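Batch manifest, entry 17 of 40.
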Amino acid sequence: MFTSDRKKAVEYAYKLFNYACICLTAAIFCALFGAVYEVFSHGVFSFYMIYAFAIPLCLGTFPLMIILLCAGRKTEKLEIIDLKEAETLYEEDRYWENSCLYLFPGRTALNAWFSGIAALTAGCLFQGVLEIYGTTNRLIVVYPVAGVVLLAAGLAAFVIPAIAARRMYRRSRGLYPQ
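Output type: structure tokens
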């Protein structure tokens, strides 16, 4: 594996970390928004408004941090003593490259997943506002449906290419019949 490939993977890991920080910021914003909104709601509260922060936290920050922990970063060995160790290092690099291929979601998967999180969070906040106001709206059903569909699309866009890549890798190693 070339050094530039490793740098690209590490840069992508930093992007995922930034996305996790953005989701954490959104969760904090939702918690503060819910708290301020409930202070001025004259004693009326909504569980949708109170727990709206949990959606970007549980569906955004935690999964991205788990992906980053699973992918990990391998420290480079400074000294190679003999050829056997150099061969082992090469195999470890190939394993690291392939594990990153399976664990890092693509752009399509991330876009769909974050859109689903945004739809669910906006739906919870809107439902909370409507409950505090004391009214209903029949179009509120669109938010959870759209959120779940987008989350499922993001999950499919992450899992299907990873399975295909794993099969191609195992076929190239002779572990699957042709």
